[in-house]
Design brief:
single chain; 229 residues; mainly beta; seven-stranded mixed sheet; five-stranded mixed sheet; 4 helices; 15% helix
């Protein structure tokens, strides 16, 4: 009898172990309440609130990793229900050009138990918002097979724009460009076009506000070859 038990003993133990694991998987995975108890790890964007008036804030870390467990009887939480907030309400408004502060990250997660949060704090750069008035410059974007040239002057209303933003980004602005498309035929153009702040190489400068956000462009064309720059 003992000899029969010893025969293929390791194989029998392995079979029993697999059977127990399989039973446990189907037992707990099929139960939504028990499955919901498993920890969730989510990546959520970090948002900054209560920025002092007249200033803009930039955070070094864009996202936070949070590990949570739903409370008893609660289903798993959706990612958009979790927030990672940096509150600047207790931060003194900067008096110099730039101020760099370290601020804790506060998770906003209803009906969950917070297991971990990374990073726990972030570096925030607070910059004073500045603005300057910049004349608008026309840039012609030629469409394929266009055989027209501009007749007369292009009218821009208004002729300049106010660019507003952090001082370091504003310093990169060399002009504000209005892209005027050359049509396939000589039809007149009367459209609202969005102006774009650009640097000295003609590249877009992001993170700035341009007012107005749309400019009226009036242009007339005539048949010909080439285009004005």
């Amino acid at each position: 009898m003992l000899q029969i038990i010893r025969r293929n003993f390791a194989l029998k133990v392995l079979s029993l172990t697999l059977a127990i694991i399989g039973w446990a998987y189907f037992r707990y995975a099929s139960n939504p309440l028990l499955a919901a108890r498993a920890d969730q790890q989510l990546s959520v964007p970090i948002s900054v609130i209560n920025v002092p008036v007249g200033y803009v804030a930039h955070v070094a870390d864009k996202e936070a990793i949070v590990a949570i467990s739903p409370q008893s009887g609660q289903a798993q939480v959706k990612p958009d229900e979790i927030k990672a907030v940096v509150d600047l309400s207790k931060t003194v408004a900067p008096v110099a050009a730039d101020t760099v502060v370290t601020v804790p990250v506060t998770p906003v997660a209803p009906n969950v138990v917070l297991q971990s949060l990374s990073p726990a704090s972030v570096t925030v750069t607070i910059e004073k918002i500045e603005q300057k008035n910049v004349p608008l410059a026309v840039h012609y974007s030629e469409q394929q097979q266009s055989t027209v040239v501009v007749r007369g002057q292009v009218t821009l209303t208004p002729s300049s724009a106010m660019v507003r933003g952090a001082a370091d980004a504003l310093a990169q602005v060399a002009g504000v460009r209005v892209d005027v498309p050359l049509p396939a035929d000589a039809s007149p153009l009367d459209e609202m076009i969005r102006p774009v702040p650009v640097d000295s190489l003609g590249r877009d400068v992001s993170g700035l506000q341009v007012s107005p956000d749309l400019v009226r462009v009036e242009a007339h064309f005539t048949s010909g070859t080439g285009a004005k720059d």
